[in-house]
Amino acid sequence: MKKRILIVDDDIMTLKILKKYLEDTYDVVTENAGYRFVEKMATYEADLILLDIEMPVVNGLQAFDELLKNPELKDTPVVFLSGVSNPNLVRELMNKGAVGYLVKTIPRNELLTRIEKIFNDDAAREVVREILILDNDIELLKEMRSTLLAADFKVKVVRSCVEAVDHIRGHHPSLFIIGHDSSGAGPREVYQSIADVIRNERVIPLVMEENFFSTELIDRVNEALA
Asked: What architecture does CATH give domain 130-225?
């Protein structure tokens, strides 16, 4: 499955050039407004974000601050884009958590090499496992997400089988906690309906026959992962 890269830049020509450079190797999506990126940031499901600094209304630095406030997205690697090289700005951005800084005129081969290194470095230091949770109870999802985030897991919550299958195929979570689907199907029915996808994508299923208490949830998750 290709890694997904989101490019955020208000310059349409830059979007077209970078997309053309990357689309043979990666799944590329684009956004041409910083404020729309902030509004929709949870929907892109990007593995890496190339973020322009100078944009109207909401610039790249402001957008990055909003990203860092989101516990589910704050660890997404962000590379800033600029029309000029600025060593002082590079240091500032790296101190804030950016993983890189690129000048927009970067040659294609160098761009691909830099991005490949970022993905390799990210994989090498990746110790956080992602948990996918499916249930139709919003309050339960919030409680479980909060508990797992506090235990340093990465968490994605969904309410339907369709959303779950899309996420599993695109992101390969370590564990899939299966509750009730929004259609009313129970955990066992949900599991049986998408069992082939779960097996093919090598995801560990944890069928939630009953609601887990917060203290029990971490134990059940760790036991399943072990």
From this structure: 3-Layer(aba) Sandwich (3.40)
